[in-house]
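User: My advisor, Dr. K., asked me to get a structural model of this assembly before our group meeting. I'm new to this, so sorry if the format is off. These are the inputs:
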Amino acid sequence: MSLLSVRNLSIWFDDPARPAVDGVDLDIEAGRMLALVGESGSGKSLTALSVIDLLPPGATRRADALTLEGEDVLGWPEARRRALRGGRVGTIFQEPLTALNPLHKVEKQIGEAIRVHQRLGREAVRRRCLELLEQVELPASEDMLARYPHQLSGGQRQRVMIAMALANDPQLLIADEPTTALDVTIQETILDLLKRLQRERHLSILLISHDLGLVGRFAEDVAVMHRGRIVERGATGEVLSAPRDAYTRHLLDAEPAGRPDPLPADPPVLLRADDLAVHFPGRRQGWLGRRDTVAAVDGVSFQVHRGETLGVVGESGSGKSTVALALLRLIQARGKVVLLDQPLHELGGRALRPWRRHMQVVFQDPYGSLNPRLTVSQAVEEGLRVHHKELDAAQRAARVRDLLAEVGLPADSGDRYPHEFSGGQRQRIAIARALVLEPDLLILDEPTSALDRSVQAQVLDLLKALQRRHGLSYVFISHDLKVVRAISHRLLVMRHGKVVEHGDTDRVFANPEDAYTRRLIDAAFSRDGKQAVAQ
Amino acid sequence: MELSPIWRRQWRTFRRNRRGLWSLYLFLVLFVLSLGAEFVANDKPILVRYQGELYMPVFNVYPETTFGGLFETEANYRDPYVSELINEDGWMLWPPVRYSYDTINYDLEVPAPAPPSADNWLGTDDQGRDVLARLIHGFRLSVLFGLILTVAASAIGIVVGAVQGYYGGWLDLAGQRFVEVWSSMPILYLIIVISSFVVPGFWTLLVIMLLFSWMTLVDLVRAEFLRARNLDYVRAAQALGVRTPVILFRHMLPNAMVATLTYLPFVLNASVIMLTSLDFIGFGLPPGSASLGELLGQGKANLHAPWLGLSAFVTLALMLSLLVFVGEAVRDAFDPRKYLAGTGETS
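Assistant: The format is fine. Below is the predicted structure of the whole assembly, which you can bring to the meeting.
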């Protein structure tokens, strides 16, 4: 008998005829990990959270049956269903920074999870907290208990979340994208931990993920969701090696692959950065003392040739986005930036403005990078208004139309607002906005990280096509080595604001010189190795 | 200009709040009516026809001799002698209330303040002036004063907050400290002191109060701009080389306006209350002005004439309640959690 089984589950918002989850059946066996896989909007989170009545406001649920160990949960009174949450069913959320209360210490966070469900004395709760910390492989010390969330790293926060979920010995753990917000090297360790807990405690885990590589490595069973329906399910090895459904195949094919187009021999240098450094003010020494500085970027030098893509790789906090802002001169930086033989670091304010059109930027977040109150054509033509004052409205409109067509947006996009577009489309708008001035260099700061894999592949293809057509150079910043390998000619690996490795992409991947680079590559590609074994 | 879809969605949410919507309609009707107060309550007829010619005493001054009278001074149309002269060879179209805010009714049968009667619907005050006429003119004065003060104070506050938030650093620090010191000034006492050597008129009072009321929105707008200056679309505009004023007003201000607009009805309310309380204690508008505060003061001084206090109270209560209801509806309309509710957007 399965631990949890759901029959014919539907969830809708306004209109029952357009359900977000449409007739889903789900069975989770005791002691196994079931991965619910799908792209954003497929209904995978809704499905999982509906099990413990955690639906967003406005959502309506209907199910024929929802049973936990054979007991029909739907028939239970409200209070008993509430006791399920954090009791027999634990939950881990994606973003540990927002899921923990920033004003509570670790002891209080975990302690509260215990106290809600058990009557224990102060000392007993504290002992239990230490026990739990040990289980999630955190130092079980008083010091740890007294820390606030902001004093923990991302991985540590996620471990605290897991400790909270385990506080009442649950039978089922719902993990909603538990590693998506974490760096690759840390993702591994968190999933290793979940796997160990699953084995030791005979725990069932419902893992929600969009990352097939991860799922292939850790989950026993997999169910693929698409537009609110489960399109394929089965043992992970079988599904991933011999997918029956077209959508599953589509997902598997969307893993970034391919290589950048070869460069012409000896291209001229477009951009040179010399000893770039960015310091942020840190803690002040006493009341009137000097302020410390924290080096976000420290002595970074590189060159970008015409038509070339330089990949900048690093984990969060490595200073790679700060490099982008320093190149664009949007923050104070020391060191030299030379673009087209013009030393930009000597220019300020007004004198810099004409040079800006040679270097443009695309940011990570497709939602935050477009002003919600400007139409697409208003956003795209803004650069023309600044740098090509000689163009009249009709000429600007024509230019914008051509460009929107070139980045593959529908013809009527210009008059619409950003919120009417999907994430991938918005990223195309942002690319169009950057290209309108026909720049020589495009700085791409994690341009595909917020997108689903299949959309990611489309955006990468678009970027490659644009590079071919216009001879663009890219500085491509990413934490995702697979994506970087698919597009970069050369690679810059950063850690703690410094460059740890710099060289041709093929050389770095085949033969990394630095230990940290090797670890990154292992973390990113070992999953494929495992998958290959499964095949 | 076409409304952007965000505005349209917010307008829809606003209309869903029936109380706010009806309050807005009612307030607008009252405000528009009071704007034409001269046509509603006046001691001059709107239109006079005399010997085949049309006269508009509301706009023009006609001497009594025009209508065959004796004096070269302006005709007093309420004078039975003048009205007889006109009615003999023409007619007069009177507004519904035949008193202006400063018309003194000398024909009272009881000593002023006179109770409500067929002639003075809400009675008269202690100087024999019609209460209804004073209310209508006073409503206009209060709302106009409040509106001008609100718009001017908000404009200054938004610019100061925007500059502080966008540039940050020393400018922000100095600005904040200045606002803190400035806002700790006791405005009421200052006005009392000032009014002891100048007689404050409408505009002087407005300027004095403006000096001390522009701080309301500074912190709010500053916080919004501090947040917005690190948004990617602002950075993208900077990278495009867009000039700073354009970034401030095209990219940041419209998005910061949401928080600001939410506050406006309440700022308006505060301005009206401020003026009323100054009038009440006698340091507001010059004597003789149509003022709700002064009427309240009379109500307090003449407890045996409850129509004074009651009328002023009901008018003020109605006006302020309507504004609060509108304000609540605006606040809800701008709350993204409310106007996005039910659209099925989840993260």
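One thing worth pointing out at the meeting: Chain A touches chain B at residues 13-14, 20, 45-46, 56-59, 325, 328, 330, 352-354, 356-357, 359-361, 363-365, 368-375, 379, 382-383, 386-387, 417, 419-420, 430, 433-434, 437 (CB under 8 Å).

User: Perfect, thanks a lot.
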